[in-house]
Amino acid sequence: MEYLSGGELFMQLEREGIFLEETACFYVAEIIIAIQHLHSQGIIYRDLKPENILLDQDGHLKLTDLGLCKENIHGDSVTHTFCGTISYMAPEILTRSGHGKPADWWSLGAVMFDMITGTPPFRADSMDGAEDTVANILTRDLEIPLYISMEASDLLSKLLERQVSSRLGSGLNEAEEIKNHCFFQQIDWKEITNRTCEPPYIPILSGADDTTQFDSRFTDQPPVDTPVDDSFMPRDNDEFKFDGFTYIAPSLIDNLSVSPTRDHTFNINQEMETHYLSSPSLDRNVTRSNSVPVYQPRIVQANHRGIDHSKLFDACPQSFNNNSTNRPHVSTTVNGSNILNQNQNEMMEVASTSSIPPQIELIQ
Description:
This protein has helices at residues 9-16, 21-40, 91-94, 102-117, 129-139, 150-159, 175-179, 189-194, 216-219, 250-253, 344-353, and strands at 7-8, 53-55, 61-63, 275-277, 300-303, 306-307, 329-334, 337-339, 360-363. It is of the alpha+beta class. Keywords: ATP-binding, Kinase, Nucleotide-binding, Phosphoprotein, Serine/threonine-protein kinase, Transferase.
């Protein structure tokens, strides 16, 4: 996980009290680029707040804590989960009437309001803070301080619009509607996207692992390692639980350097007591009927006792009883010679006398 040594935007707000509009404009612009990317992937963020916005070592923003994201939200799709942080939650989330991408733009307006006033727009200070905050979000008029510029006031009022269809960013152009607002007239969106413009604040760090930008209430806490549950630790005899398995990952087959030895073992890994053989170059010159299923090539087990012949014909056991005439066709290459249509007994004889364990393909 990437370490963002610049700390939380929340801590910057705590230190500064409020941001100048120019500073807020830069940060809001970078947030828009991040949310626009999520929306382009069919993802809504749903938990935008200063605590989830971190600065990297260069002072650029990154969104974190994606645990409340919802995927597969395209176009006008909505979801109904109640989630987020109340002070920044859109009204349609609080009422559970269905929310989609525009909910993130409401939260953007709430975060922007927090940046330039020092508090979220509808937060209540009463004892019943959460309930009153919800009531304020749903019913109270937005009050914008007089010192806020007309451009910023207009943007805030259009983002903090309760009617979803009228909210800025809810139209066909989505984020582009917000980016074209006059509040961002000094923003070069290409530079914002490429992170080539200088941030208003660059953290002063002593090194890559500097933690001074984080709240000391957290960094002063003694670290506690997660206790190890010994019941999940591997035991000396755990390898025997896999005896009899003849599978090897297909992705590893091409990387194996296989060379036969006299006792039918293979120099795949000298430390392994049991080795597995499968070949991507099995003979395919067998007529396959469209009316019967075709079995995939079997993987034949070889060990210090030679070939485990019981593994050669276990793909379809019901076909191998003594009275059955439905013998499987076997395509195999032994010592460079191709052998077709061998029945089980004949193949056993071949496998027993060959110096190279056969490569087997079974077809019903």
